[in-house]
Amino acid sequence: MIDHVDNALRTTQNAVVGRHPTTDRLIQGLTEGYALSWIYARMAAARVRHAAPIQPGRLLWVDPAEIQRTVSWTEVSADRKSDEHPRFQAPNYRLAGRVFGGEWDRREAWVEQSTIYQSFVEHFEEGVPWERTAFYQESTAAIDDGATLWGCETAATFDERCAEVEQLYNRIGTDGYKTQCELHEQARPIAAVDRLYRAVWGEIAVSVGRDGEWIFVDGRNRLAIAKLQKIEAVPVVVLVRHREWQQLRNRVARGVVDPKGLPVDVRSHPDMAAFL
C-alpha cells in the first residue's frame, strides 16, 4: 500500500512542482507529511522489535574527526525507486530508523579522500578558486550534460550555490556550529513535528557500524566545513544501525549485558550512553 502512495505522490510532484508557488508549497507539504509518516511507522515498528530506543530525530553530538568512513545508501539498501523525485531527498526518510546486517559498514571509502573534501581543502585552506577545483569542474560538466545538481540547472546557479557554501563556512567560523532548529528559530518558533523533519533532513546524517563506528551518509558540506574549522562536536542523526550493534544495544537495554563490563569506548558511545 505504501508503495502505491509513494508512486502517486512522486508522479504528482514530477508533474507540477515548480509550476506555481501555491502548488509547490502544497506538494512540499504533502512530501513532508508522507516522509514523516514513513519515519513514524519505522519508530513504531522499532518499539516492538527492539528494547533499545531508535529515535531518528534525536541529535547526538559527535567529534567530526571521528567520522572517517563513508557509505552510499544504495549499498545499504536497495529500496530506492528508480524514478525517485529529488524533493524526497532520499535516502534519509527511507533509511531513518532502519537496522541492516551485511558488510556495508566495511566499505573502503573515506570522507577525506572524496573529491568534495579535497576541493574544500584547496579552496578554503589553499585559496584555490572554486572554478579550478575538481568539485566545481565535475559538477558544472554534469550540469552542462543536462543533470540537475543541488537544484542547479546552470553553471550560474551553481556559482550561487558555491557562494552559499562560502557563507556557511564563514558563518560557522564566526558564530559556531548551530543545529537546523536553532537556525530556523532565529526567525520563528517551530513545532515538534517540524523539529523531527528538520533534524532528519537537515543535519549531518550517519549510520553506525557493527563496532559503533560512525559512518557518513549525508550532509557532506557541513561535515567538510566542520572538519576544516576544527569544530569539537557537531549534531548528527543516526539513520541506519548495523544489526550487530543494535543487538548489543538491545542486550544492554534488557539488562542481559552489564554496561560496566563493556569497553570504555563502547560504554561511552553517544548511541549507547543515550539510554544508559
Averaged pLDDT, please?
82
Strand content: 5-15%
- What is the rounded distance between the termini? 37 Å
Helix content: 40-55%
Please tell me what the overall shape is.
Answer: globular
Description of the structure:
The protein has 276 residues and is of the alpha/beta class. It has one domain (2-273). The protein is built from 13 helices and six strands. The protein has helices at 2-16, 21-49, 73-76, 92-95, 115-126, 134-144, 155-175, 180-184, 192-202, 220-228, 243-254, 264-267, 270-273; strands at residues 60-62, 69-70, 98-100, 204-208, 214-218, 234-242. Strands 1, 2, 3, 4, 5 and 6 form a six-stranded mixed β-sheet that branches. Helix 1 runs antiparallel to helix 2 (21-49), helix 5 (115-126) crosses helix 10 (220-228) and helix 7 crosses helix 10 (220-228). The longest helix is centred in the N-terminal third of the chain and has 29 residues, at 21-49. It is globular. The model is unreliable at 1-11, 13-17 and 80-89 (pLDDT under 50).
Draw up the topology in text.
Blueprint: H1 2-16, H2 21-49, E1 60-62, E2 69-70, H3 73-76, H4 92-95, E3 98-100, H5 115-126, H6 134-144, H7 155-175, H8 180-184, H9 192-202, E4 204-208, E5 214-218, H10 220-228, E6 234-242, H11 243-254, H12 264-267, H13 270-273
Parallel strand pairs: 2-5, 3-6, 4-6
Antiparallel strand pairs: 1-6, 4-5
Helix pairs in contact: 1-2, 5-10, 7-10
